[in-house]
Write a structure and sequence with these properties.
By secondary structure, the chain is mainly alpha-helical. It contains four helices and two strands, in the order αβαβαα. The chain has a two-stranded parallel ribbon with strand order 1-2. Helices cover about 35% and strands about 10% of the residues. The model has no long low-confidence stretch (mean pLDDT about 80). Strand 1, helix 2 and strand 2 form a beta-alpha-beta unit. The N and C termini lie far apart (about 40 Å).
C-alpha cells in the first residue's frame, strides 16, 4: 500500500469534501493550497428550504465507494 504523503506528492490535485480535510492536507501534510480542491454541497440552501419538498419521498441519492465504512446498507434500512 502506498502512503498518503507519497500519493499527495504524486497527485496533480487532491479533492476533499470538507474545510477540515483541506486544512489537514495543507497543515499536516505540507500540501500547497492550490493543489487542494474542496467540493461543496451541490444543494443550494434555497432548494433545501423549499416548501415544495416532499417529506414522504423515498429517493436516496448517494455517491461513495461501496465499502462497509460508508454503510450504504443503513440507508436502505432507514428508508424502509
Amino acid at each position: 500500500m502506498i502512503s498518503r504523503k507519497y500519493a499527495v506528492r504524486k497527485a496533480d490535485k487532491i479533492i476533499v469534501l470538507t474545510k477540515v480535510a483541506r486544512r489537514f492536507y495543507i497543515e499536516k501534510l505540507n500540501t500547497k493550497e492550490n493543489k487542494i480542491v474542496q467540493i461543496y454541497n451541490p444543494i443550494e440552501s434555497s432548494v433545501a428550504q423549499s416548501k415544495s419538498y416532499n417529506l414522504t419521498s423515498k429517493k436516496i441519492i448517494s455517491v461513495g465507494r461501496l465499502t462497509y465504512q460508508k454503510n450504504f446498507k443503513l440507508l436502505v434500512d432507514i428508508a424502509i
